[in-house]
Amino acid sequence: MTTLIRMRQVVQDNWRLLDPAADGALPPVPREDGDVIVPLALWRREREKLVARNGRLGVRLDAHEGPEEIADDIARFEVIAVHFPKFTDGRGYSTARLLRDRYGYKGELRAIGDVQRDQLLYLSRCGFDAFALKEGRDAEAALGAFSDFSEAYQSSVERPLPLFRRRFTNAPEGMEWS
Hints:
By secondary structure, the chain is of the alpha/beta class. Strand 6, helix 2 and strand 7 (108-113) form a beta-alpha-beta unit. The chain is built from five helices and eight strands. The protein has helices at 40-52, 91-102, 120-126, 139-142, 163-169; strands at 2-6, 9-13, 16-17, 36-39, 57-61, 79-84, 108-113, 130-131. The radius of gyration is 18 Å and the shape is globular. The longest helix has 13 residues, at 40-52. It has a single domain (2-149), classed as Alpha-Beta Barrel (TIM Barrel). 27% of the residues are buried.
């Protein structure tokens, strides 16, 4: 089993992630029961077989695949894993915000691929609640990333009001904008 940070705790992951082969070939639908996360292309091709399996279902979105591609099926997935091919690829942040804000996804949103400690706080602010760190990274040490900053100015999935609105809302009686 893989180590995972979920809800800001290190846990063992019991999901099986089915990755495409290096040449792009899709993996087969597993015959055995269990929880699986499948590539979007496999979901499209083998939807009926996947729905008929015993076990929970998740889908993997690659950086070039948007959440609109699963919008009609979003309720079927207990996990949506967004793949970051490189640390510097930011498309997954937008995917997370869209899944949470536009499509109302309430299940587990997992960052996978080249995920590193420095990204965790920002990923969580976009809506991710689970993180599979890049191989060789210390998950326990990475937990400190969530407390690197005590406050954020911008709105986020976690805190929809920006700092200036939160401060104004908590201002003493009679205080107004000048």
